[in-house]
Amino acid sequence: MNLISEVDEPETKRLKSENDNRKRPCDQEEEGSCYPTREESNIQEDIPDAREISPSQEEEREGLVNSDNEVTIDSDDESFTFPLDQNISNMLDEVEYNGYFPTVTDRYFTPYYKVNVQSQTGNDMCIWIHSNRICMLSLAPSHIILQANKSINKVDFKISDKLDRSLNKVSGKGKHGAQPLQTNSNICTISCTDGQAYVIKCCMIGKLVEVNEALLEDPQLLKELPHKGGYLAIILPNIKLLESLKQSLLTYDQYIELVKKKEEQ
User: Fold this and answer.
1) Does the predicted TM-score (pTM) go above 0.70?
2) What are 103-112's contacts with CB under 8 Å, separation 24+?
3) What digits encode the pLDDT tens for the residues 162-177?
């Protein structure tokens, strides 16, 4: 005898048992001959017919519409015709171009000059200061080696028996291990085929980052522009003294004016 009344059964359990007791029309028919119930018919009515889908919905479903509501073109569609190439030479009419493209040195370095270093006539040096304040040392165009177009025999970075600039090794952001430099420190000695030798001074206080070791194998490279290998050394100047260093040097305009005065004499 069941002591628990059907009334006391949980509602979900009663609903489940009632649904199980309902006989679908296909329960008494052969398989494949039954018809859907009203509930199944309602479910099928909620599914849209493929013929009722609009073109925009079809494109969204296929992923052809982007976030800007622009329909992309399939690259495999051979029916798409690309426009003909147009002559764009007239686009340069509004561009100020004098036939010269600035080099890397021109774009990022500002040149400063020091003439007659150590009171030696024609011993003119150029200090290229980068936007990040690192410096590149090279001969000035008015240096006697370049002016006389002398043939360079050797660039020697060994300034003494105990000190060789080419052996300079640095590490880290602070350039640890770099050789310290003073204004009158020797960087190298340039020997020419005419027997003349020129001692190159640092011209600033700082640390030696590196020397141009390519000059050891090809000394004539020194006659090239700095971005083509015609430089002597890379130096990290004393940042606190950088502004005073600029004040002690000649700007490009001042240097050109001085060279013109020398040529007129």
Assistant:
1) no
2) 103/225, 103/227, 104/227, 105/136, 105/225, 105/226, 105/227, 109/136, 109/226, 110/252, 111/252, 111/255, 112/245, 112/246, 112/249, 112/250, 112/251, 112/252
3) 999 999 988 887 788 8
